[in-house]
C-alpha cells in the first residue's frame, strides 16, 4: 500500500491536535475551542453545574444566542409565550452570572446560532466547535470539527472546556462537475442523503471534496455540512481554502491583523493528505443532479422533482416498504403521483440550512416581478440581523414583501415550530429547512424539503414546480 | 460473573428511523427543568388529537403497561440532539433500549443518563420481534456477562464498548472522571495560547 505511516485525513489531524489526554484506552479527552449555546438545551446544564458547585471554566470561549423559541414577529421576550419567556430569561441570567457573551433579542446581530457563528468569525478552521444542537455540523464548512451534543455534554464542556471522544470512522464524499442552473447545494446534499440513507453516515465524519465543492461559496458549503447530520454523520467537513479565508477576513471575532498571517499559515495545513485512507468513499456526479424534493417523512425519502412518488412495492427492504406506506399515508400522497401536481399551502424560506444571504438572493430572483399565489401563506425568515439588513439594503426584502411574502425577524421559526410559526394539520409546506419528520413543523403538518429557489417557485405557482425545466434561456422561469 | 442491569417487560416498537421529534415533540422543550417528561414521550403517536390515549399505539396496549425494555429497529433516535428524548424515555420507565442501530448523539445522551443501549444485527432484532409476537416477554439483561436472558436458559449475547460498560457498571460521574485530567487541561490551554494566540 502506498500510504505513508503519517498520512492523515483532515478529521484525524484536527482530532489529534486537540487531545488533552487519555481517559482510558479508547477514549480521549479533547479540548473544545468554541462552545455555542442557546436557550433550549442549556438551562439544565447550568442547573447541574450549580448543583455540583462547579463554575464555567472558559466563558471567553463560550458564546450564546437566542434563536429556537423566539418570536419572529416581535422582538420582545414574551412574544412567543410565557414558557418561552422563562427559558429566554434563564439564558440571559445564566450568561450574566457566568460572564458569557450573549447576542440577545435586542442585539442587532442576533440570529440562528449556526448563522451567527460564522458571521461573527467565531467559527474558524481547525477548531473543535460544539453546541447543544444537531446542526452544529454546519460549521464544518470552515474545516472545523463541529458536532451537536446533548445537555449532559453541554454541562461537561461548561465545566471543563473538554469532551470525552472516541475516533470516528472517515467517509469521503467526492463531488465533481458543474451544477446546472437552479440546482443548488441543497439539492446536492439531498441527493447525497438519498444515495447514502439517513443512517449511512452513522459513526462517520464525512469530508466533502471535489471540484463542485471547490467552486462552492461558503454559504453553499454550510448548507451541505448542515445536513450531514441527516445522513447520520457525526460531522461534515470541508478543507479550508482561499474562499474560506476571504469569508473570514475582517469578521468581528476572526484573527485580527497581527495574527492573521500566522492563522492562515496554520489553516493551510488543514487538508487530508493525498495518500490518507478513508474508511469509505462515495463519488457523486454533480452534472446529474436535478432539483430535489422529499416526498416522505425522513430526509432519505427524496426524488428529483420531475420523478413520480414511488410505490412502496418498489422497495425490496420490508422495513423501508412499511416506512414508505406510512409516509405516503401521513403525507396524503399516492404512488405514481407527480409532486408538480401538488398544491402547497405554506412556504417557509429560512432555517440554519437556507437562511443566508445567498439563499435569499436565489429565492428573490425567482420571485421578482411575481405574486404569491392566492391561498398560499409564505414566510421569509432571515437567519440573522446581519442577513436581514443586507437583504433589505439589496432590495430583496422589498421583492419578497411586494410579492406577498411575510418578512420576519431572525430565528429558527417554522423549521421546528417551537414558537408560534407552525404548519397546521394536513397543510402542505414547501420548506427550505432540514427535517421532514412527522409533526416537525406542527402536528399533522406535511413537509416537503426543497431549495430556496424551489420554495420560492412553489409560492408563486401555488404548487411545486420543476424550477430547472421551467427556467428559460434568460434565466426567467415562468 | 453476573450482574443484572435490568429486568422486566419488553415493549416492541416496530419502526425504523424513530426520530427525537417523535420521541418528544417541540412544545415540551421550553421547560428549564430536567424532570417531568414522561407524559410527553411519543406524544403525537401516544395521544389522539383530543388528548385521549391512542389505542392503536403499542405503548398504550395494556399488555405492555409497566414495560422497562424498549425493542425497536434501525437508526433509533435520529434527528435533533435534544437530551429531552432519553430523559422522557427513562422517566417513563425504560432503562434499556435494544435496536439494530442508534443515532450517535442520542446514543451518547442515553449513556450519559445511565441507560443501556444494546445494538444487535438485523437478524437478531428480527428474532427478538418474533419472540414478542408469541406474547408479552420478560427478559433479564446481564451487563457483566453481556447477555439478554429470555428464561429457560435461553440467552443472546451482545457487544458493548468496554468503556461504556465500565461506566454503566461503576456509575462513574461523567464530569468528575474528566476532571481528573485537570492539570493536563491547564497545560493544553497554555500551549494552545502560545502556538495559536488568536484562539484566546
From TrEMBL, chain A:
One GO BP: L-leucine biosynthetic process
Keywords: 4Fe-4S, Amino-acid biosynthesis, Branched-chain amino acid biosynthesis, Iron, Iron-sulfur, Leucine biosynthesis, Lyase, Metal-binding
Keyword Iron-sulfur tagged: yes
Cofactor: [4Fe-4S] cluster
Note accompanying the cofactor annotation: Binds 1 [4Fe-4S] cluster per subunit.
Start and end residues of each Aconitase/3-isopropylmalate dehydratase large subunit alpha/beta/alpha domain: 12-462
PROSITE patterns assigned to the protein according to its UniProt record, in alphabetical order: ACONITASE_1 (PS00450), ACONITASE_2 (PS01244)
Pathway recorded for this protein: Amino-acid biosynthesis; L-leucine biosynthesis; L-leucine from 3-methyl-2-oxobutanoate: step 2/4
Domain of life: Bacteria
GO molecular function: 3-isopropylmalate dehydratase activity; 4 iron, 4 sulfur cluster binding; metal ion binding
Job description of the protein: Catalyzes the isomerization between 2-isopropylmalate and 3-isopropylmalate, via the formation of 2-isopropylmaleate.
Homology family: Belongs to the aconitase/IPM isomerase family. LeuC type 1 subfamily.
Name used for this protein in its record: 3-isopropylmalate dehydratase large subunit
Gene source species: Arsukibacterium tuosuense
Gene expressing this chain: leuC
Automatic annotation (TrEMBL), chain B:
Example GO biological process: L-leucine biosynthetic process
GO cellular component, one term: 3-isopropylmalate dehydratase complex
Pfam families: Aconitase_C (PF00694)
UniProtKB keywords: Amino-acid biosynthesis, Branched-chain amino acid biosynthesis, Leucine biosynthesis, Lyase
Pathway connected to this protein: Amino-acid biosynthesis; L-leucine biosynthesis; L-leucine from 3-methyl-2-oxobutanoate: step 2/4
Family recorded in the similarity comment: Belongs to the LeuD family. LeuD type 1 subfamily.
Protein name in the entry: 3-isopropylmalate dehydratase small subunit
Functional summary from the UniProt entry: Catalyzes the isomerization between 2-isopropylmalate and 3-isopropylmalate, via the formation of 2-isopropylmaleate.
InterPro entries: 3-IsopropMal_deHydase_ssu, Aconitase/3IPM_dehydase_swvl, AconitaseA/IPMdHydase_ssu_swvl, IPMI_Swivel, LeuD
Ranges of residues in domain Aconitase A/isopropylmalate dehydratase small subunit swivel: 7-122
E.C. number: 4.2.1.33
Top-rank EC class of the record's enzyme: lyase
Complex formation: Heterodimer of LeuC and LeuD.
Source species of the chain: Arsukibacterium tuosuense
Gene Ontology molecular-function annotations: 3-isopropylmalate dehydratase activity
Catalytic reaction(s) noted: (2R,3S)-3-isopropylmalate = (2S)-2-isopropylmalate
